[in-house]
Input
Amino acid sequence: MLKLGVFELTDCGGCALNVLFLYDKLFDLLEFYEIKEFHMASSFKEHGHLDVAIVTGTVSSQRDLEVLKHARNYSNYLIALGTCATHGSVQGAVEGKIRAKLEKVYGTRANPMKALDAKPIVEHVAVDFALPGCPYDKMELYQLLIDIAKGIEPVKKDYPVCIECKLNEYECVLVKKGLPCLGPITLGGCNAVCIRSKLGCIGCRGPLPKEANPTSEFEILKELGYDEEYIRKKFKTFARGELRW
Amino acid sequence: MVILEVGEFTRVEGNGKAEIVIENREVKEVRVKIVEGPRFFELLTLGRYYWDVPDLEARICAICYLAHSFASVLGIEKAFGVKVPEEIQLLRELGLIGEFLESHALHLYLLVAPDLFGYPDAIRMVSKHGELVKEGLTIKSFGNYIREIIGGREIHGINIKPGGFGRYPTADELEKIEKSCDELLRMAKRAVNIFATQDVFGAVPVYHIATDEYLYGEKLIASDGERFDYLEHIEEKTLPYSFAKQSKYKGEIFMVGALSRLMLKADKLTPMAKELFEQHKEKLSQGYVSLNNLAQAIELVYAIERAKEIVSTLLDRGIKGENVPIEPKEGEGIGYVEAPRGVLIHHYKIDGNGNITYSNIITPTALNHALMELSLYEETKKNYGTLDENSLTHRLEETVRAFDPCISCSVHLVRL
Ligand code: SF4
Ligand code: SF4
Output
């Protein structure tokens, strides 16, 4: 049996919750894994070495940083799970320095709880696999954990959401309806689920690492009449400053 | 002086702990510390175009993302003076019902039931109580199915939009809901029996607060008969030891959540839920926060019965699937929604271009924060010295859990 730990830093809880949404598949995983720590689901906790650590969320406080370091130091294989962990997600996109933000929201620059500027975990420690998605597709996690258990090198996706849209034969919302859709520059793997809702992709899986062409996407949206500030904000929501145009 | 640390709470969503100050063997103070980092949603939404905002707000919490999108949509529609037809209202209500089922089932079967049966988690309960865990997962996945067809996916779907939906559900999808209801009702009734046996603990709030309709509303209502906007009577203060704020109603500690809804709105329940409420009314009226668990179980019955009513109405009429067109204009609006764990408030000001200029979000966990502290204080006072440290900590965890707190959601506080 492999020893598994699930650690949740600052986030919405979705990526941890999505593990429970595996339902029967979760019980299949339990044939290979023994859960040693999963704060949201269990009061059971056993410190010690882990084969696989899953970490969700951003590092947004000193406490988060300590939990992350613990997870890294005690595990062989660390998975950064979800867009918070891989790219910073929505809280990572809030601009400004921590003290200024605290002042705006809490009315004081004091920082007794040691909040930090939200950063993805990949900026703090080396990870063995990064699986984005806000939240990630749960079957992807299932496959990843099965691969690791069987000693198979897991495959990273490298195609845009557009491909999955075409495979599903959804009407292109960008070209046909002029909706702002980030599908062409966003990493696929969600089965184009938002386009199924006849709405544009908001980029929740983060930017496509290679071959994306944000500049041309930017131009297309400008031609459709969206203003630059609007497009910029949209691009940055899940990806922080990573997209350059 | 001794400081006892209870932390971090497990089987709750997010990261929080408690500190108990003891002086001369007497319990002096309890501080509930929300240690989850701040997420600054109010800042994130400032300057954003209204259309994109409900999708961003969904990310506040995964367990109740749809309640957030919906409260956001309601606030925005109010700011623009938009009214949606009954079809859209019913579909939205159905979405919220899905969320209640998913969230309450998660809470009751996976997070609280292990306490009742003496296990550290539901997974380890399976060998002896597999049937019960399976029933919980069945209700939960049914709730998620509704979230998927109404909200767009199980977590963080973007289908809930100002003026309507991206995509409308098909008759087939709705029929599937209708078909499951009777079987699920049987399971939910069993849950009511189980949770009716739980001990009472925690504090008793001075007031209950809820929205004026069962699942959402135009205004808030309180147990003193007041019907009001939150700014009129709810005051918030920041704390030096927590990322969540504390609120009082007319200066007193209050509660939001399933128990408050039943106490204030039992007349709006569906037939079987009403009957169960009457049956357990005496117990519920004692008002201890732990009774929130039983109240949630009764709400499972309500949600399933109501889902059936809504679906059959919609199937009879057929779905038109027409959105209400929106012209952005300057305005201000507040959305009041019942998230599974209680009242959720989204308040926006929007400029003539449709961009957000002010946003304030108050979540149920922040509203319950003061009562949570009081509950831990009273439980510690009652048990300190008689229970050993482990049992005391366990009791305190159970008390926190009864609130079904969502700690992630409590860390987005208002601008002062
Ligand atoms: S990536 Fe998205 S779903 Fe996952 S924890 Fe972060 S905000 Fe939640
Ligand atoms: S379509 Fe885009 S926004 Fe929707 S789930 Fe996929 S990557 Fe995320």
Observations:
- Chain B touches chain A through 70 residues (CB under 8 Å).
